[in-house]
Design a protein that fits this description.
Alpha-Beta Plaits; Rossmann fold; 14 strands; 2 domains; alpha/beta; 4-stranded antiparallel beta sheet
C-alpha cells in the first residue's frame, strides 16, 4: 500500500491533554516528515515525545488538531495507519516465555501476513522466507527457535525491531528504543538500524534523550513541555549558537555573575556552577582577558545538542 504524497507524516496544531490534567501533554505542535527521512524528537522525560508518538501510531486519540500518517487520518482510519507502520517502544514487546519464531508468528498473523498454524512446521513457505529475511536483517538468524528470556537485552531489542519490520512498514516509529541498554549495545542497535534504513529507504521517526542518537537524524526537533522549540539538521542547530562556547568554572560564582552582568555578557549556568558563554559576539580570548574573577577551569569547545537545549530552555536536558 504505497502513498504518493511526499510527506510520510503531516501534523497540524496537534493537542493532547490527559483527563484531569491542568496542562496539555502535547501543546499545538506542527510537523512534517518527508518520505525516506530520519526524523527525531530530542527532549527530556515529560517533554511530550512519547505522547506524540502514541497519537501518531493510534494508541491515543488527539484532543484536537490533525495528524495524517501515510495519507491516513489517525482519527478516521486508525486501522489503515497501523497497517503501514512499525513501532518499537521503550519496553520490549515480546512474550519472554515464547520463542523468537513464536513471537514473530503471532505478529505475522495479527497483521495478515500469514494464516495461523499451531506449529512452525505447518506455516507457509512465504512466512518462513519472510521470517528468515527479518532475522537476517537484524543479524540474528540463529535465534529463530530460542526462548526470548534466554536472550540478552540487546538481542531482545533486535528481535523487537525484527517484529516491527515483519510486515514491511513504510514508517518505523522508535520511542526511545535503547532505554536501559549499555552504551555498547546502544551503538550496535543503531548500527543495524541505520544500515537497514539506508538499504530499505523507509521513513524513521525516533524519540530520544541520548544526544549521540539524535545526531543520526536528517532533521531534529527539540521538544519541551509539549512544544516544539526548533527544527533543523543537527549541524545547523548547533551552528545557531555560534562556532565556539566558552566554559568557565569560577571559585566564586556570585563574583563572576556580577562581573559578566556588568560587562553585559549573556551566559547560562550548567552543572556544578559551570558558566557557559556563547562567543558569537565577543571572542573567548577577549572575554577571558577582561575577567578579574578567579577561574579554576577554562574550556573552549564546539557546541553540542545539549548546548542547544540549554540555549533554548536555560537548563540542561536531565
Amino acid at each position: 500500500m504505497k502513498n504518493k504524497s511526499k510527506l510520510a507524516i503531516d501534523v497540524k496544531d496537534l493537542v493532547k491533554r490527559y483527563h484531569g490534567e491542568p496542562e496539555n501533554a502535547v501543546d499545538g505542535i506542527d510537523l512534517q516528515v518527508k518520505r525516506g527521512e530520519i526524523y527525531g524528537f530530542l527532549g527530556p522525560n515529560g517533554a511530550g515525545k512519547s505522547t506524540t508518538i502514541s497519537v501518531l501510531v493510534t494508541s491515543l486519540f488527539p484532543t484536537s488538531g490533525q495528524a495524517i500518517v501515510n495519507g491516513f487520518n489517525v482519527n478516521d482510519d486508525p486501522d489503515k495507519v497501523r497497517s503501514t507502520i512499525g513501532v518499537v517502544y521503550q519496553k520490549v514487546s515480546l512474550d519472554e516465555k515464547l520463542t523468537v519464531e513464536e513471537n514473530l508468528r503471532s505478529h505475522a498473523v495479527l497483521y495478515g501476513q500469514a494464516d495461523y498454524a499451531p506449529l512452525y512446521s505447518l506455516m507457509s513457505d512465504k512466512y518462513k522466507r519472510r521470517l528468515d529475511e527479518v532475522l537476517e536483517l537484524v543479524g540474528l538468524p540463529q535465534t529463530k527457535h530460542q526462548v526470548v528470556k534466554k536472550l540478552s537485552g540487546g538481542m531482545r531489542r533486535r528481535v523487537d525491531i525484527a517484529k516491527a519490520l515483519f510486515h514491511i512498514p513504510q514508517i518505523l516509529f522508535l520511542d526511545e528504543p535503547t532505554t536501559g541498554l549499555d552504551p555498547q549495545s546502544r551503538r550496535a542497535i543503531w548500527d543495524y538500524l541505520i544500515d537497514l534504513q539506508k538499504e530499505k529507504n523507509f521513513t524513521m521517526f525516533l524519540t530520544t534523550q541520548y544526544l549521540e542518537e539524535a545526531e543520526v537524524c536528517d532533521r531534529l526537533s527539540i521538544i519541551d513541555h509539549g512544544e516544539i522549540l526548533v527544527t533543523d539538521t543537527p549541524d545547523k542547530l548547533k551552528k545557531q549558537i555560534g562556532q565556539e562556547l566558552l566554559y568557565l568554572q569560577p571559585t566564586k560564582p556570585s563574583q563572576l555573575k556580577k562581573e559578566l552582568e556588568k560587562m553585559k555578557i549573556e551566559y547560562q549556568v550548567g552543572r556544578n556552577q559551570m558558566f557557559i558563554i556563547e562567543t558569537a559576539k565577543l571572542p573567548a580570548q577577549k572575554i577571558i582577558a577582561q575577567l578579574k574573577s578567579d577561574i579554576q577551569e577554562i574550556n573552549i569547545r564546539q557546541p553540542s545538542l545539549d548546548d542547544v537545549f540549554i540555549h533554548l530552555t536555560g537548563r540542561k536536558m536531565d
